Amino acid sequence: MADRQMIGTRTGELSSRRCFGPTGAVLAPLLGLVLALSGCAGQPVQMGSTVKTVPAEQALVMPPAAGPGIVTVVERRFDNAIDQDIHLFTSAMTPGQNMLKVQMFGTAAPFKMASNALTSSPLTSASVGSEMRKALPGIAMARSQYYVQNAYGPFGYAFGRGAGSDLCIYGWQQVRSPTGTISPFANYGSIQIRLRVCEAGASEQKLLAIMYHYTILGAVDAGGWNPYGEPNGASPTLGGIGAPSYPRPASTEPMVPVLPQRQSIMTTRAPMTTSAISAPRQPAAATPVAPAPVSETTVVVPTASPPSNLVVPSPSASTAASTATARVTVPSPSCTTQKEGTDIVCR
To answer: Cα-flanking dihedrals φ and ψ of residue 296, to 5°?
Structure first.
């Protein structure tokens, strides 16, 4: 029995040396440890999962229908937010890219072991000034002192002159619920929006219309995410007595615009054309021909001193090859009917 055990031990040692070489006795335990820890390894790296280009249809904010159009959208995913640079059409001479920048806070982390949270800084005069200097370097921007707001609340803006005839706007807005209504379970989350646009020959009203009429399309799929706050209640006068309601403001403007009357164009036929030229003496045997048909031509008015004779052109001949025309002589009112030979003589 002892011999058999010794033979079995020597056989195992020989097999270990054949598989792992001379150091097989040392590597065998390490190989087992590596195999045991392989179950803790992560998934393969997904390229482009945190920063990628998405189609224009996936933009979180859509500019107004009048433009500017979307060129491309670059999206970055963080542990707590989604950041999008929505590049807009640019035709200005001022260096830089027109852009709508959107940061939507309140999302979940795309990876379990991620640690790249995005900081949501409050809007201050200093922070806005720093942003404008980076977006529009070298351009003196004048901030508006007026209070304005769009469908999502108040916003601020500034204008400046760029290269050539370019007019530039920088707008900023923060959408979030009132401070007293925010909690970890309701009305949390916020949206940061920045606008940078330069356009040649544009007016302030045209560029400001972008801030008034853009639309927020994205949202976070969570029950408590609500940066817009509680909806406004109905008017207290609705359904009450003494508060009449009309379909339109009281004015003289009709509800349906009046169509303009159609103007018909009538074509009238001009009278017979006459030529104010002197007629040569014609033989008396000439056959009278009917006057030419009415044509749509300009009437030639005779001068103050009419000639002695008016010549009426005859219609074209029966065949296209014949171009000869006959003329009839009409006596002048100052002539007599006395004949000498074959000619008519005017006294």
So the answer is: -85, 70
Task: State the residue range of the domain holding 134.
Answer: 51-111+120-216
Query: Could you tell me if residue 103 is inside a domain?
Result: yes
Per-position DSSP letters for 46-97, written without gaps between them: -TTSSEEEE-GGG-SEE--TTSPPEEEEEEEE-SSEEEEEEEE----SSSS-
Q: How far apart are CA 311 and CA 276, in angstroms?
A: 8
Asked whether 89 and 67 are in contact (CB, 8 A), the reply is yes
Q: Quick one: DSSP state of residue 251?
A: S
Specify the pairing of strand 148-150 against strand 153-161: antiparallel
Q: Domains in the chain: how many in total? A: 1
The structure tokens listed for 190 are 């916020």
Residues 6 or more apart in contact with residue 50 via CB below 8 angstroms: 76, 77, 78, 110, 116
> Could you tell me the end-to-end alpha-carbon distance of the chain, in angstroms, rounded to an integer?
174
pLDDT of residue 166: 93
pLDDT digits (tens, 9 = 90+) for 161-208: 999 999 999 999 999 999 888 888 889 999 999 999 999 999 999 999
Residue 141's CB is within 10 A of a number of other CB atoms, namely 18
Contacts of 15 (CB under 8 A, 6+ apart): none
- Using CA atoms, how far apart are residues 157 and 214, in angstroms rounded to an integer? 14
In this structure, is residue 299 part of a structural domain?
A: no
- Residue 7 covered by a domain: no
Give the type of residue at 80: N
For residue 31, give the H/E element and its range.
helix 24-37
Distance CA 170, CA 156 (A): 8
Angle 176-180-183 from CA coordinates, rounded to 5°? 75
Q: pTM surpassing 0.70?
A: no
pLDDT digits (tens, 9 = 90+) for 28-45: 666 666 555 555 555 666
Q: Is residue 227 part of a domain?
A: no
| Rounded CA separation 192/174 (Å) | 5
Retrieve residue 112's tokens: 């379990």
